[in-house]
From TrEMBL:
<feature type="transmembrane region" description="Helical">
    <location>
        <begin position="167"/>
        <end position="186"/>
    </location>
</feature>
<dbReference type="Pfam" id="PF04750">
    <property type="entry name" value="Far-17a_AIG1"/>
</dbReference>
<keyword id="KW-1133">Transmembrane helix</keyword>
<feature type="transmembrane region" description="Helical">
    <location>
        <begin position="56"/>
        <end position="77"/>
    </location>
</feature>
<comment type="similarity">
    <text>Belongs to the AIG1 family.</text>
</comment>
<feature type="transmembrane region" description="Helical">
    <location>
        <begin position="97"/>
        <end position="117"/>
    </location>
</feature>
<feature type="transmembrane region" description="Helical">
    <location>
        <begin position="206"/>
        <end position="231"/>
    </location>
</feature>
<keyword id="KW-0472">Membrane</keyword>
<feature type="transmembrane region" description="Helical">
    <location>
        <begin position="137"/>
        <end position="155"/>
    </location>
</feature>
<keyword id="KW-0812">Transmembrane</keyword>
<dbReference type="InterPro" id="IPR006838">
    <property type="entry name" value="ADTRP_AIG1"/>
</dbReference>
<protein>
    <submittedName>
        <fullName>Androgen-induced gene 1 protein isoform X4</fullName>
    </submittedName>
</protein>
<feature type="transmembrane region" description="Helical">
    <location>
        <begin position="12"/>
        <end position="36"/>
    </location>
</feature>
Length: 243
């Protein structure tokens, strides 16, 4: 009798937990996809035409987040949220890789870097001229909520991290490509995407880019560490039950 009651309680908790995961993924997917759509309707003053919104890491990050949470929704229905599935479907493998390699480190990079520079001098990243056309809620979705939701995801869903060399290589390719991209934009428009780059001399820009890359790689390691610490006991227990 006691065993049956305990089993029913675990089943009820699991249903509630899966519902919580689904609502998190659904809320995030809706807001980030809507933010991307809304950005396309804006005409920003003094904006560089070349590259459109794709010149901003914030916009690329929003695309990554939107893609991740849509993939997570698909995985909720046709994949699996088991901690250690015996044969993980392709959708689950891609979901795990996307968060580990891009979604977590890039989201924290964008959020922390933006608000740090904003606190120092907002004109370096978000000039006051944008206030009349760029709503406050959109700013927080793109620079605050990306951090809040990805941290919640870290604590509510386990993911199998790739080997460190593969994960960091994927992240390095993305960040390296973006650095090349903003230099291409500078070459054709003669304007830096971010005002902060205009006030830096060449040696300072090199140090700035190196610091951003190093910081992003450190965030990857942070995500790996959090994942291991938060889910270590559950993974071990799951592995014992599966034997």
């Amino acid at each position: 009798m006691a065993r049956s009651k305990s089993k029913n309680e675990r089943s009820t908790f699991l249903v509630f937990y899966r519902l919580l995961q689904f609502l998190l993924h659904l809320t995030a997917a809706i807001q980030f996809n809507y933010a991307i759509y809304y950005l396309h309707t804006l005409e920003l003053p003094n904006s560089i035409p070349f590259g459109g919104q794709f010149k901003f890491l914030t916009f690329l990050c929003a695309i990554i987040q939107a893609l991740y949470y849509v993939i997570s929704l698909v995985n909720d229905f046709v994949g699996t949220n088991e901690l250690v599935p015996r044969r993980a479907p392709a959708i689950r493998k891609f979901k795990d890789w996307l968060l580990s390699t891009l979604a977590f480190p890039v989201a924290l990079n964008v959020g922390i870097t933006f608000w740090t520079l904003y606190a120092i001098d907002r004109e370096l990243v978000f000039p006051k001229v944008l206030d009349p056309v760029f709503p406050s809620w959109l700013n927080h979705v793109l620079h605050t909520n990306i951090v809040v939701f990805i941290v919640l995801e870290m604590f509510t869903s386990y993911r199998a991290y790739p080997t460190r060399s593969k994960g960091l290589t994927g992240l390095a390719i993305f960040m390296g490509s973006y650095l090349v991209w903003i230099h291409i934009i500078k070459h054709y428009s003669n304007v830096w995407v971010y005002p902060v780059l205009e006030v830096l001399q060449l040696p300072q820009r090199i140090l700035f880019f190196a610091a951003v890359l190093g910081f992003t790689f450190a965030l990857y390691l942070l995500g790996e560490f959090i994942n291991n610490v938060v889910w270590a006991k559950e993974v071990k227990l799951s592995l014992r039950k599966s034997k």
